[in-house]
Amino acid sequence: MQNLIDFIVKYKHWFVFFLMEGFCLALLFRFNNYQGSVFFTTANSFVGGIYSAVDGVTSYVGLNSVNLQLEKENELLREEVHEMKRELAAHRIDTLQFEGFNRSRYRFVSAQIVNATTNHSMNLLTLNKGSQDGIRPEMGVVSSSGVVGIVFLTSDHYSIVMPLINMKSKVSCQLKDHQSFGTMEWEFGSCQYGYMTGVPLHVKASVDEVVETNGHSDIFPSGIPIGKVVSMGQSDDGLSQKLKVLLAVDYTSVHNVSVITNYHHAEKRTLEFVADSLMNLE
Amino acid sequence: MKRETYIRLGRMVLLLAVQLLVLNHLHLFGYATPLIIGYMIICCETAVSRMSLLWWGFGIGMLYDIFSNTMGMAAASCVLLAMVKPSILKLFMPRDMVDSFKPTIQNMGLTRYCWYSVSCMGLLHFTFYFLEAFSLEDLLLTIGAMIGGTIIATVISVCVEYIVRNRIEEREVGK
To answer: All domains of chain A, ordered by start, with CATH?
Structure first.
């Protein structure tokens, strides 16, 4: 404290000087219109520049929360779109149908991919949501571009997804224009292309035709894009066509996904299992 | 109050009167007005502390501003000159001077005194005209006013120094 007082006493003329200059400049800007306007214009533009720089930084820092908010919104919108599509389809068939029986089975849970492999034959993705978030094995995973894969294993907080680019992955699909069914498979190689097999020979598929889910498996609702046909060929046994498909999802950059929860799926599987067992008994 | 203070007060009133009544109406080349009020600070000896120099500078500057409607300009310039003056004087005064040193032509010689006066007046006029223009537009005009004002103010201060101080000393010698 003594040092501070000594310092102030020693350099008091500097303090007085700055005070006087400050007072003089305040008078200058207050009582001289031209100088005042120049000073306040410059000060305003300077402060404005600082504010815009600060705003840029804070908005960049806040992008993460904005992303999460957008994801939530996307989730709701996807549910809404699905609901709308279902409503539309229902109205086309029967406008007097009772809607109580028709409630959508699908709900969406947004998640982020926290780990992924794309250069193995058995590629897997890890999501940051698990069974505590309502995710169960054999639920579909989609991104804004299209189908990503199917949930393979879950723990409390994480889940493993078997993407389309896994040699064991098989997803039921259809050609959008021809409504012809097939199975989406993948062969070890490029993670951009998959193969649609089991397409009957008489179907004349065209290049750029969209391949989408057909809704038979209950894992995915119908109409979610998988990719586009790039070229046509025959399967090894020559009995069906094998179409090369450019996948809609870029696995090297996909980050935000939604898991399609369908809790009726297990019930359906159990029922089918029981039916199979009964048939075998007979 | 000390005698010195009365002398300085008288000097201040006289300088202000000359400045406001005569020199403010002199516009050399149409725009260069000399500021003789700087002489108030220039003529102070080294014994005067920086603090009192600042107050004298602030006082004469504010009075000039009030009477010539240039609020803050002359006061800011005079305070800056008062702060820097001891350092400028150190450049021109003989090195072996320890006691109070009066910056006069007799003590410093005409050339040194002229350089000292030009430096101080230059700083005063530079600050004053820069604050008055407050932009870099018409820079040549501003520089012209600075140089013109500095030269006239220096010439006046040297003349005053030469005539008045000489007479005072002659009187003292006569006594």
So the answer is: 2-61 (no CATH), 106-282 (2.40.10.340)
